[in-house]
């Protein structure tokens, strides 16, 4: 089946047809590095990480570009607050971003350009727009003329005349139109600047991405992505300036991920409900965070709650519990090829990267494989079916970016952390399990049940296996 994806530009799902057969060029807007990244940034990074992984698994050669905006008003303001240089702010938060992404198992893109390292490319692009009369210079500032681009608003669906009717009056009076946007900003005291034909200054936000994407992917490429909040004005302005400069379509497909809400409310600094990635990683296993963020379709909003994260944590437990059982099963199959679950997972991913449905396939595979193991398989056909399911589960895990740990280490680490957090007496738990074992030997089923219930009250779940009883902490 061919991959299809929803194109924000055309507002419909379309078959993916690359510009070059077998190759994908994808540009995703990265962070403006003035602060720690929050869970919304994690969703975007993980969504496009999975898209990148799936294209590769489908046989495509992917050139994936994700930039850093390392010169911006917000960075300058933060530097002034801290009394340091702008580049020190950006360097600090780029390093923190990498720490977050590595912890979340987000693969590095092919290229990760910095805006400040592409000033010459940005200047050349601005010069082209001025020469073609799509931009004008005022006192060292350069602005793009939105009225000169006939298709302005085609991505967001906004009409310029409607926006003008509701425009605020507190705008730069020098501009020809209130919605003309800055391509180059003249230097101000204490701000970083570079020489240009219009005087010292720095680039505007939108032009940076047009220059960097065309540098690495060409003037027309396959996919441009980012969060829904970037559709207007950022991506709208990228289209206008790029297509005005290059006289060709900018990106064929536009892909945008939905927002992350916290307890049914939009994340907001005024509400104090921002969850930084580094804080989320202190509370939850990174694979639980990934599983949660992929549990809804990428275009839909997703609500982060204690319950949703507990469910994701339990889901990761289930996956590793099965992998642990498979490690101990010592099966000897005759083949190890992919099977029906990978096929169903691929069908879900081919349909606009539907990870929610794909995760459903993953847990179907886990449930049925557990059932087959319970039936103590001793035929070659049964061993083949179980091993094929394992191959499928591991391959699905690779696309979702999970199953990076050895099952034994996963549970050991989780138990150790939980014991510390919950102040659980591990020796007491082991003694209770031994007492229950003795009661079962004596056929004192009532006592054995009471001990199990007492353990459950301590948030301890136990699992009887042929090689002994294991225990886990339910609350993560």
Write out key terms for the chains shown.
four-stranded parallel sheet, Rossmann fold, 15 strands, 3 domains, Four Helix Bundle (Hemerythrin (Met), subunit A), alpha/beta
Please characterize this protein's 3D structure:
This protein is of the alpha/beta class and 476 residues long. It has three domains: 4-262, HUPs (Rossmann fold); 306-400, Up-down Bundle (Four Helix Bundle (Hemerythrin (Met), subunit A)), CATH 1.20.120.640; 418-473, no CATH class. 49% of the residues lie in helices and 15% in strands. It contains 16 helices and 15 strands. The chain has helices at residues 39-57, 73-82, 86-103, 119-131, 160-165, 205-217, 231-246, 277-283, 286-293, 306-329, 340-350, 355-374, 380-400, 407-422, 426-441, 445-457; strands at residues 4-7, 12-15, 23-28, 61-66, 135-138, 141-144, 181-186, 201-203, 221-227, 251-257, 260-262, 265-266, 302-304, 460-465, 468-473. The strands form five sheets. It has a four-stranded parallel beta sheet with strand order 4-3-9-10, sandwiched between helices. The chain has a four-stranded antiparallel beta sheet with strand order 5-6-7-8. It has a three-stranded mixed beta sheet with strand order 12-11-13. Strand 9 (221-227), helix 7 (231-246) and strand 10 (251-257) form a beta-alpha-beta unit.
């Amino acid at each position: 089946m061919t991959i299809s994806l929803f194109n924000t530009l055309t507002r419909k799902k379309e078959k993916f047809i690359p510009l070059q057969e077998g190759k994908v060029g994808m540009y995703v807007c990265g962070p403006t590095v003035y602060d720690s990244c929050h869970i919304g940034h994690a969703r975007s990074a993980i969504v496009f990480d999975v898209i990148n992984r799936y294209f590769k698994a489908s046989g495509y050669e992917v050139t994936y570009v994700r930039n850093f905006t390392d010169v911006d008003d917000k960075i300058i303001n933060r530097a002034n607050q801290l009394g340091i240089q702008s580049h020190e702010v950006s360097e600090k938060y780029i390093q923190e971003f990498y720490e977050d992404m590595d912890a979340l198992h987000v693969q590095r893109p092919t290229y990760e350009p910095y805006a400040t390292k592409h000033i010459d490319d940005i200047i050349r692009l601005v010069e082209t727009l001025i020469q073609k009369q799509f931009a004008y210079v005022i006192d060292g500032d350069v602005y793009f003329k939105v009225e000169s681009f006939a298709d302005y608003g085609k991505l967001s669906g906004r009409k310029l005349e409607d926006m003008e009717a509701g425009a605020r009056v507190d705008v730069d009076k020098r501009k020809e139109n209130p919605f003309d946007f800055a391509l180059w900003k003249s230097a101000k005291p204490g701000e970083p600047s570079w020489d240009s034909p219009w005087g010292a200054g720095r680039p505007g936000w939108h032009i940076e991405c047009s220059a960097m994407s065309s540098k690495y992917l060409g003037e027309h490429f396959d996919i441009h992505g980012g969060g829904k909040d970037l559709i207007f004005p950022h991506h709208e302005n990228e289209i206008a300036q790029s297509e005005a400069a290059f006289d060709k379509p900018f990106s064929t497909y536009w892909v945008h991920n939905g927002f992350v809400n916290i307890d049914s409310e939009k994340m907001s600094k005024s509400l104090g409900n921002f969850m930084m990635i580094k804080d989320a990683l202190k509370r939850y296993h990174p694979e639980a965070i990934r599983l949660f963020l992929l549990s809804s379709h990428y275009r839909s909003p997703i609500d982060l709650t204690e319950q949703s994260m507990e469910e994701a944590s339990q889901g990761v437990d289930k996956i590793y519990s099965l992998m642990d059982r498979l490690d101990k099963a010592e099966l000897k199959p005759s083949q190890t090829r992919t099977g029906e679950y990978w096929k169903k997972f691929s069908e879900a991913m081919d349909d606009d990267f539907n990870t929610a449905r794909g995760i459903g396939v993953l847990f179907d595979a886990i449930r049925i494989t557990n059932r087959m193991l319970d039936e103590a398989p001793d035929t070659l056909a049964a061993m083949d079916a179980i091993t094929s399911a394992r191959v499928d589960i591991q391959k699905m895990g690779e696309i979702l970016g999970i199953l990076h740990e050895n099952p034994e280490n996963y549970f050991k680490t989780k138990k150790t952390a939980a014991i510390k957090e919950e102040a659980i007496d591990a020796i007491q738990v082991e003694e209770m399990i031994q007492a229950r074992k003795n009661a079962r030997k004596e056929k004192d089923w009532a006592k054995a049940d009471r001990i199990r219930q007492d353990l459950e009250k301590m948030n301890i779940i136990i699992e009887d296996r042929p090689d002994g009883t294991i225990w886990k902490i339910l609350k993560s």
